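Reviewers of the previous submission asked for a worked example of the structure-prediction workflow described in the proposal, so we include one complete record here. The input consisted solely of the amino acid sequence. No template or homolog information was supplied to the procedure at any stage.
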Amino acid sequence: MNGIFLTLEGGEGCGKSTQLERVAEALRTRTGREVVTARSPGGTAVAEKIRAILKTREPGEDLLPETELMLFGACHAQMCEHMIRPALTRGAVVISDRFTDSTLVYQGCARHIAPETVARVNEFVCRGTRPDLVLVLDIPVELGLRRTTGRSGGNTQNDRFDSESAAFHTAVRNGFLELARREPGRFAVIDASPSPEQVTQSILEAIYARLAIL
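From that input alone, the workflow returned the following structure tokens.
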């Protein structure tokens, strides 16, 4: 039995973390298969340490875009080798909260690193491991920022991505939608504005429609 690799993508506050476990549990119940959840950055012991560097603003020395790109690359190399590929080899369904398409959007579109450079890094570190289906949870930037502010109690300054400008988050949203436009066979755009229950149902419908094996 072949493994299946799914990713949840989208801007800050779109509800990926909420949907990750909801979708995983629904797939376990429907298919009886092993379902492994992951997050990027993170997912392994080393990658979680990299996550702490990427997510936390260091007073007096913020990360360069190039440093971000290399750290995400290191994280994805660890995830692929120690988590994702072994699970896929076992025939599991792997669902990750973000992966390399976030790198294309955040470091490429929003940080303005040449897309071909980001793509080369992604290919090098992942060695051909790519999601079978990318689910982009799309919401207006203003709603996403309200959600992130609410979950942090109004303090987003220590999170390097939550605290970015509205222009940055707009570039992220547009970047995901452009990727989906270019590769409609690999991407499904989900309206993430409704209730969590409705969003879960939309995600599952997209998965079942695209991947008959599930």
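The chain has eight helices and five strands. We consider this example representative of the routine output the project will generate in years two and three.
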